[in-house]
């Protein structure tokens, strides 16, 4: 009997997705460019429906038609070379899915090129890391809707489920699935940085121990802040380094890495002209963190207030931090979803933002209870311009903005860098201001460059001889 799907690329993600498909009743052909990973897959793993292949021809030949091939290789030029090697072996109507964190521009190009050859290309945003791949990721597939229908039964089976609903939905045309995954990661960066700033405030300003912060985060994970990132952060903070006996977090070098998806989200926001400032600050925070040697030198030579840990009413301030974090999250998600909305209308993708929020409830890194509220907001009114203007989030923002303000002021007074908390507050205050100061910018532009300006009281464009 022919195999129902082929998985090309057996790194951790590819191997786990293949196992997930096997556990869900698929007959899976597996292939890797080098045989070591195929051997490693088969070593110690047995399943009656898995078939390893060491030649591309026999791998492809083993698949039932239309062939379905899921490629999970490093994003970038390797995806193109894999596609080039596959195409001569495929027939019109066959389907290639790319599950890597590919740049959506490349996915758009691959979609066009393959469609011209009669081959369907589905961009599949995959979130959830190695565990998610094995037990149920969130999946964001896009491309030809008819082709999607043919792979939907497999993708929906392997996806995480929330209330019985698969965390997988058809996203839209061409590479929109990878676009949605990219902005998911931008939100992920912001969410991680906001939690980190809450941690820093609790530690440096309130003087809590790492274990105490873990306990606080565990308790927050039972409230409206419940999320995967909150849960794993609490767990991380309980971990002790066996060698030194110190909290694990204290022996890890404070330089954050990144593979690029957060940066792409910011680049896209700049290109699109949308103010995703919190998402972008989280990328810059990682860059700033990487200047470790300079930071060590600067700490000794640049003035600023010293932290005075412990002088505040801890219980009251823990509540302020909690509300500030919630408020920061509202603003960050509002920015991410605004970016979706803007891309959707600029590209004509017709993204269903309520549905996207629903599939983010399970499997993915930003899964959180909070996404139910986002989804409800879009269900109530699919034309929402900004989540901050929906009844639920407006009420929450009005309740919590003062806590965010308190935390930013107190942090700044004490010399604590809070890039995402402060970006959230600036965004919030800027967004709720009917007067922005951009009139002065326009005057300056007109002064030095005769760029003209509009007036508030007359139609047309004007120039002044300053
Ligand atoms: C996910 C993650 C995953 C990965 C990214 C981001 O949704 O499962 O986003 O795709 O963690 O590579 O990692 P960086 O922090 O290295 O950019």
Automatic annotation (TrEMBL):
Gene3D superfamilies linked: 6-Phosphogluconate Dehydrogenase, domain 3, N-(1-d-carboxylethyl)-l-norvaline Dehydrogenase, domain 2, NAD(P)-binding Rossmann-like Domain
Signal sequence interval, chain numbering: none
Pathway assigned in UniProt: Carbohydrate degradation; pentose phosphate pathway; D-ribulose 5-phosphate from D-glucose 6-phosphate (oxidative stage): step 3/3
UniProt keyword terms in alphabetical order: Gluconate utilization, NADP, Oxidoreductase, Pentose shunt
Domain of life, source organism: Bacteria
EC id: 1.1.1.44
The keyword Kinase appears for this protein: no
Catalytic activity from the UniProt record: 6-phospho-D-gluconate + NADP(+) = D-ribulose 5-phosphate + CO2 + NADPH
Family: Belongs to the 6-phosphogluconate dehydrogenase family.
The protein's role, per its UniProt record: Catalyzes the oxidative decarboxylation of 6-phosphogluconate to ribulose 5-phosphate and CO(2), with concomitant reduction of NADP to NADPH.
Complex and partners: Homodimer.
Protein name per Swiss-Prot or TrEMBL: 6-phosphogluconate dehydrogenase, decarboxylating
Organism the protein comes from: Lederbergia ruris
């Amino acid at each position: 009997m022919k195999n129902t799907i082929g998985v090309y690329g057996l790194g951790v993600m590819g191997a786990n997705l293949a196992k997930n498909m096997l556990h869900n009743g698929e007959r899976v052909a597996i292939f890797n460019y080098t045989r070591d990973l195929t051997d490693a897959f088969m070593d110690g793993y047995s399943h009656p429906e898995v078939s390893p292949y060491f030649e591309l021809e026999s791998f492809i030949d083993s698949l039932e038609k239309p062939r379905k091939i899921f490629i999970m290789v490093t994003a970038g030029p390797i995806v193109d070379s894999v596609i080039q090697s596959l195409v001569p072996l495929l027939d019109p109507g066959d389907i290639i899915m790319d599950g890597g964190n590919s740049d959506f521009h490349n996915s758009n190009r691959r979609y066009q090129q393959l469609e011209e050859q009669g081959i369907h290309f589905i961009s599949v945003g995959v979130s959830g890391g190695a565990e998610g791949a094995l037990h149920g990721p969130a999946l964001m597939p896009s491309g030809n809707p008819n082709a999607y229908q043919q792979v939907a039964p497999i993708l929906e089976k392997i996806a995480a489920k929330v209330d019985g609903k698969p965390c997988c939905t058809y996203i839209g045309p061409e590479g929109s699935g990878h676009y949605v995954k990219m902005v998911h990661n931008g939100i992920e960066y912001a969410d991680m940085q906001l939690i980190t700033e809450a941690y820093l405030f609790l530690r440096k300003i309130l003087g809590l121990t790492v274990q105490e912060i873990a306990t606080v985060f565990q308790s927050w994970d039972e409230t409206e802040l419940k999320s995967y990132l909150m849960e794993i952060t609490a767990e991380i903070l309980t971990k002790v380094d066996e060698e030194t006996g110190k909290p694990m977090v204290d022996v890890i070098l404070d330089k954050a890495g990144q593979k690029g998806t957060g940066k792409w989200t910011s680049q896209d926001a700049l290109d699109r002209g949308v103010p995703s400032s919190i998402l972008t600050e989280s990328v810059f925070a990682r860059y700033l963190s990487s200047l470790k040697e300079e930071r060590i030198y600067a700490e000794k030579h640049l003035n600023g207030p010293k932290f005075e840990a412990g002088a505040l009413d801890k219980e009251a301030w823990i509540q302020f931090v909690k509300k500030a974090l919630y408020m920061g999250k509202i603003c960050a998600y509002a920015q991410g979803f605004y970016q979706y909305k803007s891309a959707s209308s600029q590209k004509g993708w017709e993204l269903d933002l309520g549905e996207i929020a629903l599939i983010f409830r399970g499997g993915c890194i930003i899964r959180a209870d909070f996404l139910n509220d986002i989804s409800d907001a879009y269900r109530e009114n699919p034309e929402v311009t900004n989540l901050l203007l929906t009844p639920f989030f407006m009420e929450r923002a009005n309740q919590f903005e003062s806590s965010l303000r308190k935390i930013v002021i107190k942090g700044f007074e004490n010399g604590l860098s809070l890039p995402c908390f402060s970006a959230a507050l600036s965004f919030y205050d800027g967004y709720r201001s009917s007067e922005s100061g951009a009139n002065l910018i326009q005057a300056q532009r007109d002064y030095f460059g005769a760029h003209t300006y509009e007036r508030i009281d007359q139609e047309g464009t004007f120039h002044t001889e300053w």
